[in-house]
Specification:
The protein is an alpha/beta fold. The protein is built from eleven helices and seven strands. The longest helix is centred in the middle third of the chain and has 12 residues.
Amino acid sequence: PDQHDEAVEAPIRVGDLTMFQIAEMRRRHGLTAMVETGTYKGASVFAALEAGYEKVLTCEATPLFVDNLRPHVDARVTMFAEPSATALPKMLDLAVDDRVLFWLDAHCDPLRCWDWRAPAMPGLDVLPLPRELALIRARRGDAERDAFIIDDLNLYVRQFWVGGEWAALWGLGPPAFETVRDLVGSLPRHECHVEHGALVAVPMAPHTR
């Protein structure tokens, strides 16, 4: 088994940036902005501000969370009450001149995955990460100046899907990245490791590119 696959043992959960050394990442790699998919209650927004990021861009598909958070943030924060499919292009436009920490929430939209009334959706619709990474690469090339933290990494471990509980529940096939190795391979200019059930990818040192 791939070493990254073996490292993923934590259950699926929604994490936030307080678990990671994002202030050190900002200093070491010259990061100036944080782009987040999945605001929830704003813990990662406040973590990025405290860590010194000059610009925070975040989107949330549930407008109530954005409405609740808006009175508590300042002009450094731009929030979109819409899913990443429509918000991420706007956030990339606003961060075109920045070095970005991308905080990508890889799990599916709860309103589409966990509502028994919702019809089964194709894998790429349920799991937004492949589409998000494709858009980032289309806009920013190898994104070699940017860093990534991708939560819910065990969604991209092949054995989680093949013959697993999710396939039985929702009739879904595996997503675009069938193993964590494939996910790492989509970031060829980055050094990657697993931390707190997330994939952390930072710019590769110039001498190792």
